[in-house]
Amino acid sequence: MSIHYMGAWLCWILPMVGAVLTPALAKISSRVRDYGAVVFSLLAAVFTATLIPHLLSKPPSLYNSESFRWIEPMNVGMGVIVDPLSIIMANIVAWISFLIMVYSLRYMHEEPGLTRYWFFMNFFIGSMLLLVMADNLLLMFFGWEGVGICSYALIGFWYRDSKDDWLKCWVGEGDEAYPPSHAGMKAFVTTRIGDVCLLAAIFMIYAYAGTFSYSELIRTASHWATALSGAGLLLPASLLFLMGPIGKSAQFPLHEWLPDAMAGPTSVSALIHAATMVKAGVYLIARVLPIFWFAYHVVGVTELSTFFTVTAWIGAFTAFLAATQAMVSTEIKKVLAYSTVSQIGYMFLALGAGGLLANGLVEGLTSGMFHLMSHAAFKASLFLAAGSVIHAVESRFMYHMGGLKKFMPLTCLFMWLAALSLAGVPPFSGFWSKESVLTVSLESGLVGPFVLGLVTAALTAFYTIRMMGLTFYGEKGRRKTEHEHGEHEIKEASPIMYVPYGILAVASLGIGFIGLWMEDALHHVFSVAAPYYSLHSSMADVAVEAVAAPPLTLPLALAMLVIGGVPAYLIYVRKKLDTSAFLAKSMLLRALSTFFYNRWYINKMYYNAFVYPLMASASGLYKWVEMKGFESAIRGLAFSFAGFASRLRRLQTGFLNYNLIGILIGLLVIALMLLKVGGLW
Amino acid sequence: MIGDLLPYTIVVPVVASLITLALNNALRQWNGVVAFLTSLFSVMVFGAAVLNIFSGAAGFYEQIHDWMMLDVVSLRFGLRADGLSSPIALTVAVVSALTALYTVRIMRDSNNMGMFFSLYQIFFAGMIGIALATNLVEFFVFFELSVVASWALVNGWGSGEKEKAALKYFLFTEAGALCFLAGIVATNGYLQTLEISEIPLRIAKLQPDVGVLAAIASAMLIGFFVKMAIIPLHSWLPDTYVEAPTPITALLSSAMSGLAAYAIVRIVFLYFPVLRYIAIAMVVLAVITMIYGAVNALGQDDFKRLLAYSSISQMGYIMLGLGAAALALSMGSYDLAAIGATGSMFHYIAHAMGKAILFLLVGVFTLHVGSRNISQMGGLAGRMPLTAVMMFIGFLTLMGVPFTSGFISEWMIFTGAIGAASLSGEAIKVLLVVVAIVATALTFAYALWSVRRTLFGSTPQHLNGIREAKLSLLAPLVVMAVLSLLLGLYPTILTEEINSAILAAVKSVLP
After folding, report:
1. Out of A181, A192, A631, closest to residue B235 by CB
2. Backbone region of residue A596 per phi and psi (left: phi > 0; alpha: psi in -120 to 50; beta: other values)
């Protein structure tokens, strides 16, 4: 291990060490445990920062993984990969996680079970960084599943499922209300469905490539991709591979776990949405994008175009689907959750579209990672601020909020900064990154996803401003009025909470101001790296003149912003228009609103089509096949033996005459047999 | 030195079993300490053997003596600890030692504990003998020894309809054993050897009819299928596991059942010309068993019965690795075959750790909750945190989540399976394996569903006073949990030698 890459190892080892030490530190005192946990996450962040110089170093240090032997018979090494993708990703993950950990100090103060909380938070960060730094698919999968375990444990942190804490830690209303332990299980099982598909794909690739290492995979791509394609397995393998990111990043059709994951503490939601977990899927696609891109454009395995098209379509459709649901949600965290699903959809769109283009590798990576970065900043800020609001109001429902601007001015300000970025208002970072995604998708010629992306931009502006209006403007919410008669007053959060989300909010403004430069910088970094992803020499073969997209996206995106944002502003912030009047008049609007509120009935459908039938068939199988089938058959066999024996026993009467007759018959038979054998008969 | 100690790993428990019988009333449940010490002796011997083989200090240890040399049949009595049998024997010894310690506490109110531990040690000696045997008849004798001892244990110290369950277990296993015996007799008649290591040599020399070999191998396989409870020969397992005393269930499930898989690698694979006919049947039965067991587990309320069905499902995983290995071997790819078989053997070890933890937890629940029924539990995580962590690690191991040994084993099994299916070039086989892999989500479903119903949610009224189990009761579980995690992080210490032992074995059979 050379000294240069120490950071790449330590950044994921240290949080894991911190996690393991948590129970020991808890023995000293709870303060030592809390601050100790935060220090370990800070160390991780510092070590990822030491990798930044490699970003600008000469190409030879790129894609350079150092591994030592790990699992012998499979020839799997344990190593880290240091390239622009992992450096950028690791820094986003580690620094945002650190801010969330600081925020947790106050937010989770005096909750029971904090040792468990800090253990899993640090393990979460460590697993995510392992996932990012791993130089092969197997080691990556350790981080990948580690993230899954931690999300399970943290979403279900309030595992008692107490009805008394209904307003704090359940999620949903009516027949779609779920307690935390259910939500945690749902998250783990749903993502697992994606994971097993991913595993199957990894095995299939391994069966032909004989390696799990990214750099080996790209070096031998022409060999294994052709062979796999010849067996007719390349497309199935690539689509199975895609299922993993779809599950982890909560894309359609495995998106239903994420909204319900809001049952966890808000700090956990922030970690899942902004820094870890859902970003893992995007990262993995970005990680293998050069491999698949190379196989498609250079090796010429044409069926991979389907893989890229599917990725783009899933992203675009999910972006639209989730945005419509966010427009009618009543819970502040759920609006943000839907919004995450929707924004991740944009990243999928960018990567899929980039892969389709012969010159799109760099562009796809740039816009996908750019949007990931800006989303990470503003979404972490939004979640942490929403956490403050929930903390103050003691309810997750927006109809319990309203008029909070007066009481929590700083939170309101920071949340506006982040919200404008999410809505895609120039010059915030979200505007530039979204515009970049749309440009790539237009260039790739995917008209459908491009249009969906545009429409979603309008919806995004609408739901974001709606959320701000419902939370901070207008009348006091129902529950808050109760508070003024007793209990406690609503006041601004403590600095240890608002400083982290303040920093993130300002950062998303800052990235916005340098937006174009930032995009260029990312573009530059990836184009320096690209030849090494795709084997220097062959890069030239596919260098096509860039097709400049018509400068449509900028004005269109701005138009969408106006279309979505202005009505929302008038309705929810200025309260000039009354929604109930609209809804009363238009049946279509009412129907749409119900349809969106019920999550397009997809969630219900999943329960009715998969969960309940599986449970029913489990008890049915036990009752009908196991008990009535196998068990009765065995019993029948036993009884028939018993019956045979009891019938046979009747011959043993004990009467001498019967016995004598028996003896005679026996002798006769023996005599006949002897005659037969002797040939005399 | 280690080679000289091998016979004592069987002699010591047998002698000690007489001692515990004599001290029946004097020591009562403390007889368990004797059983623990005899198992600990084996742990040390096989631990040393594993480390020496891993470090390359020795290839294998072997002792062979003439036993009965007649004209028609010549029997040798041999014990062989190599890269394959040492880890298996070590696992048996570790589980047995830890379970004995646990039994001291959990069965302190039972009668005749001296006799219990006497049988316990004979059962243990039988399993060690199975792992080390070099001769088919010797193997059969140890096999029968363990079956009779475990039958007596279930019959005498079980719960509910224990005699009925024990009889069912005995009849099923004996029927299987007779099939196996028929295979042995036919092997002796046809190949004129009973030495396991000579089977491939004789096959190469005599070039026997494949049909006859297939009959022999199938008879043996049926015997082992019964032992592994492969569908449709599984009916004995749920009742036996549920009614057996909990420590014995732990031994049966984690140590005994999987030894049949080891026997398939050790013995059936040597009849290599027939593998191509039976491989696909093994794979199909494996996939059915995996799914059937898991779905049945999902429908259970009795935690012990749930684990019993989970055991059936897990034996399916092991069988899948073996089927894949047989498939690869029949196509001449011994590297791939070794990966699948190594995965299966490592899954035996991983499953032993995970399932022993879970079955031993059943005893903890019976003691503290007063019931095995999941519907009687809830919210235990807050009251019994260590128990909860153990249950979680146990299930994570079964689920094959990274950081536990279960991931490594399942990963190797599936790599071998996909590889063999791809090599065959038939899309349908690849699809079958993909179905098997996707079906692992079912394990997630029943595991997490159990965890949620027992550990999370609100605590029922009658459990308000419940407290954490004593550390002396949970300590054996903690050790197994740590072992599962350590093997998950550094599996090479076992996988490498298992793999090279299997590789050496399959290379010797292939022309």
Report:
1. A631
2. alpha
Residue A642 domain-assigned (yes or no)? no
Do both A150 and A74 map to the same domain? yes
| Interface contact B491, partner A, CB < 8 A | yes
Residue A534: the pLDDT is 56
Per-domain residue ranges of chain B: 2-509
In a domain? residue A244:
yes
Both A570 and A674 in one domain: the answer is no
Q: Could you list the residue range(s) of the whole structural domain that residue A303 is in?
A: 3-597
Residues A676 and A547 in one domain: no
Q: Do A192 and B441 touch (CB under 8 A)?
A: yes
Give the whole-angstrom CA distance, residue A371 versus residue A374: 5
The alpha-carbon gap from A431 to the nearest alpha carbon of chain B, in Å, equals 39
| Contact yes or no for A185 and B449 at CB 8 A | yes
β-pair type (B74-81, A66-71):
unpaired
Instruction: Please report the DSSP string for A488-555 in residue order.
Output: ----PPPHHHHHHHHHHHHHHHHHHHTHHHHHHHHHHHHHHHHHHHTTHHHHHHH-----PPPTTHHH
Structure tokens at A226: 């052709």
Distances in whole angstroms, Cα of residue A131 to Cα of each of A135, A140, A370, A536, B405: 9, 4, 19, 26, 19
Least CB-CB distance to B438: which of A149, A200, A621? Answer: A200
Find which of A429-433, A586-590, B179-183 is predicted with most confidence, using mean pLDDT: B179-183
Contact (CB<8Å) B298/A160: no
| Cβ-defined contact of A73 to B430 (cutoff 8 Å) | no
Tally Cβ neighbours within 10 Å of residue B324.
35
At B503, which amino acid appears?
L
Of A556, A577, A597, the last residue of a domain is A597
* pLDDT on residue A148: 92
pLDDT of residue A464: 93
Any CB–CB contact under 8 A between B455 and chain A? yes
A232 touches chain B (CB under 8 A): yes
Partner A contacted by B387 (CB < 8 A): no
| Total CB pairs under 8 A between chain A and B | 143
User: Hey, are the CB atoms on B415 and A207 less than 8 Å from each other?
Assistant: yes
> Is the domain of A591 the same as that of A669?
no
Confidence of residue B98 (pLDDT cuts 50, 70, 90): very high
Cβ burial of A462 (10 Å; 0-12, 13-18, 19+) is buried
Mutate which: B231, B336, B452, vs A, most A CBs within 10 A: B452
Dump pLDDT digits (tens) for A58-105. Answer: 554 444 555 677 877 777 888 888 888 888 899 999 999 999 999 999
Question: Both tokens of residue A405?
Answer: 């601007």
B377 lies within 8 A of chain A by CB: no
Q: Does residue A589 sit in the same domain as residue A667?
A: no
Domain membership of residue A551 (yes or no) is yes
Q: Is A571 part of a structural domain of the chain?
A: yes
Question: Could you tell me the two tokens for A619?
Answer: 């008890």
In chain A, the number of structural domains is 2
**Is the reported ipTM for this assembly greater than 0.85?**
yes
Instruction: Residue B510: name the closest of B190, B269, B184 by CA.
Output: B269
CB contact under 8 A, B407 and A145: yes
Q: Please state the rounded mean pLDDT for residues B28-36.
A: 86
Please answer yes or no on whether B434 and A240 come within 8 Å at the CB atom. yes
CA distances from A428 to A412, A508, A513 (A): 17, 6, 7
Residue in B closest to A192 by C-alpha: B441
In angstroms, the separation between the Cα of residue A200 and the nearest Cα of chain B is: 6
- Mark whether A671 and A530 lie in a shared domain: no
Considering the domain architecture, whether residues A518 and A660 belong to the same structural domain is answered as no
- CA max distance for chain A: 121
